[in-house]
Amino acid sequence: MCRSLSVTYKFFLDACPLGIFILNAEGHPYYANLAAINLLGKGVSPTASLDHLNVIYQAYQAGTNQLYPLTEHPFLRAFQGETQTIDDLEIHQGGQIIPLEVTATPVLNERGDIAFILAILQDLRPRQAQSQRQEQLHQELIRRNRGLQQENDSLKTKVQLLQQQLDRLAQSA
Question: What are the pLDDT digits (tens) for 46-58?
Fold first, then answer.
């Protein structure tokens, strides 16, 4: 029964659209669901240590060619008992850059000791694409608003000219 239950959990975790990456208490990769494997470009390397994860998974600080600073890494912070979310980590794989939001949190055992680190990985590309579309729409609205403002100013000028002509006609009559 326990085996089938763990297989069932794996099905649920693999169906999750967010990446789930788990480290054991020693800092070695323990589990990655399908979404995490797709985002990271590879599966679990159980012998990898915490300080080599950036190299193995090609985790860089966003917009740079610098590996993500270990001292700022949410995995390390989770081992210090903190839950942390960052959105400035990129995975460089297969000629593409995948920006990620990473939230890491400690999972405690019954004694209160850290048993695992649970990390949730979210691909930021859809969010960035949406933000870019919103910015384009915003710029288009600004452009249209300027056009309407110019048209409004032009109409005001025409109305003033017509009013002046009417005033002259009224004075001459």
Answer: 889 888 999 999 9
Distance CA 151, CA 10 (A): 62
Beta bridge partners of 87: none
Q: pTM value? A: 0.75
What is the length of the chain?
173
Per-residue CA distances from 43 to 5, 36, 39, 105, 128 (Å): 22, 8, 10, 20, 26
Q: What Cα–Cα distance (Å) separates residue 29 from each residue in 20, 46, 141, 149?
A: 11, 5, 48, 59
